[in-house]
Each structure stands twice: as C-alpha cells, then as structure tokens.
Amino acid sequence: MLVAPPGHSLTRRSTPLPLQDLADWPLVTREPGSGTRVALDHALRDRGLPPIEPVQEAASNATVRVAVASGAGLAVLSGLTVASMLESGTLVAVPLEFAVRRDLRVVWPGPADPAVWLPT
C-alpha cells in the first residue's frame, strides 16, 4: 500500500492515484532487491512505466516508515508493515489504482508444525 504522513495533500484524494502519477511524488523505498521494491518495479514494468527513482533508499522497513512519517516522501510498503502506524495515525494510506502484490515465505527451524502458530 502507498502511505504518506498525516496532512499530505494525497491523503485528501477522492479517487485512487494512478500508477503513472506515482513518479510525480518523492518516494522512499527499500534497497534494490528487497521484496517490496522488486514487486513495485515489476508492477511499473508490467504497465510500461520506468522504475521509480527514490529520494531515499533504506535497508529496513522501520527506516522507511520513520522517513515517511517525518515527511521525506511517500512509500509503498506491506500493509502488515504499516498496520500499527496506520492505526495510530502516524501514517495515512493513500488509495492506489493498482495493487502491488508479492509472495511471502515463512521459514522456521527444525520439525515444527506451523498449524500451531499460524492464525486460522
């Protein structure tokens, strides 16, 4: 999802932001090769658009979230990553005309039963 700091002009949009308009705004991203960055680059490429040139790259989601909350730019991050900041009002979701999707994988040590700890 696309997130912005509270009070950003995009948070008052009544229509979703078109993907091609994302390049008009400063964007804070993870480093090249990170899952969300790759998913965003693929979404852009699939629509014939060039990759985003970020104003800042960060090695962690936490750094991206803080940069956005501080007004450095917008970010595309997993909803799971920003849920608590959306709930607290530290970040605001901006509707998009597209969904950036990515696969997630879970790794655990040894013979464990994931049914024990996965939500139902």
Describe it for me?
With 120 residues, the protein is an alpha+beta fold. The chain has one domain (2-103): D-Maltodextrin-Binding Protein, domain 2 (3-Layer(aba) Sandwich). 26% of the residues lie in helices and 12% in strands. It has helices at residues 35-46, 61-69, 79-88; strands spanning 2-4, 28-30, 56-58, 75-76, 92-94. Strands 4-1-5 form a 3-stranded antiparallel β-sheet. Helix 1 links the parallel strand 2 (28-30) and strand 3 (56-58). The mean pLDDT is 88.
User: Mean pLDDT, as a whole number?
Assistant: 88
The backbone outline, from C-alpha atoms, is globular
Total count of strands: 5
How many structural domains can be distinguished in the coordinates? 1
Q: Which class of secondary structure composition applies to the elements?
A: alpha+beta
Give the CATH class: Alpha Beta
Count helical runs: 3
CATH superfamily: Periplasmic binding protein-like II
Report, as a whole number of angstroms, the end-to-end distance: 24 Å
Oligomer: single chain
Rg from C-alpha positions? Answer: 16 Å
Strand order of the largest sheet: 4-1-5
| Low-confidence segments | none
CATH architecture classification name: 3-Layer(aba) Sandwich
User: How large a portion of the residues is in β-strands, by DSSP E?
Assistant: 5-15%
The ordered H/E elements are: EEHEHEHE
CATH fold-level name: D-Maltodextrin-Binding Protein, domain 2
> Biggest sheet, in brief?
3 strands, antiparallel
Helices, strands, pairings?
Layout: E1 2-4, E2 28-30, H1 35-46, E3 56-58, H2 61-69, E4 75-76, H3 79-88, E5 92-94
